[in-house]
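Let us work through a complete example step by step.
Step 1: write down the sequence.
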Amino acid sequence: MTGELVGGYVANSLAIMTDALHMLTDLSGIILTLLALWLSAKSPTKRFTFGFHRLGGRYVSACEAHSYWKQPLCSMGMWEEPSSLHLSEVLSAIISVLLVYILMAFLLYEAVQRTIHMDYEINGDIMLITAAVGVAVNLIMGFLLNQSGHLHSHSHSHPHSHVLQSNSPNTAHGSSHGHSSLAVRAAFVHALGDLVQSIGVLVAAYIIRFKPEYKIADPICTYIFSILVVLTTVRILCDTGVIILEGVPRHLNVDRIKEDLMKIEDVYSIEDLNIWSLTAGKTTAIVHLQLVPGSSSKWEEVQSKARQLLLNTFGMYKCSVQLQSYKQEMSKTCASCQSSSA
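Step 2: predict the structure and record it as tokens.
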């Protein structure tokens, strides 16, 4: 990134600097996340008695202290606070995207000025060398990530049974390796995207080097890459907005979840259902169910079925199921209606 910034500035090429701008999104996200993780490891203070764990994306658990003899139908145990978000993810994403938009606006302004006035010169030799080095670096990065992904998948390919208990250590072990393998593959795909963009800059540099009269290719590349940056960052802003507002993830249908909960035997009604995103890929739900008359003794069975539905069928990360016995609804009449009827 630094090489492209320097080379783009010396060559007076906006296309190369726009390519470097794309890498800045990754760098700023990594720096902000590392800073958040460093802060999360600091000890608690008198003012911040819980420490700084939330900056590092860790959860603060809350225990509902329901006494069994007072509220026997309520779920007991630990559940996640809805506000315990992966703040490092959200903040780093928003800050890096906003930073990129500011710099992109400046580059677009310069590109428009060049398109209108055409009073600029580009050093084709430096632009071509810088673009070629950028392509070479992206090729090396993609090769290393591809090799890392293959080695990782082969070194952790163990025979597992088709059915594993959710609380077994093998499941957690496989899950962690699966997540790291997915991360390597995602980084490989990202490197391929960077490679395509670098090749585009190299083609523009080749044209400008041997056909200086077609120097308009430089601002054209800036326009194209700016559109790509916007397309790749809008989704990030939408996802972080859903997390901040504690919204329901787009892949879940609340009406479908309610229908399936009502199909559980001995469930009379759904008093309340809250679903939100703790962070990307981790969804939490709290549901309050009312049982049919005379089925209070089956509350454990109903609770187990509801938890299994939410965790296994809909892939919730955590859920809390609260149950209550049947209560007949009383019609409420306002005081003005009572006086008018009298």
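Step 3: interpret the result. The beta strands are 61-64, 77-80, 267-279, 282-291, 318-324.
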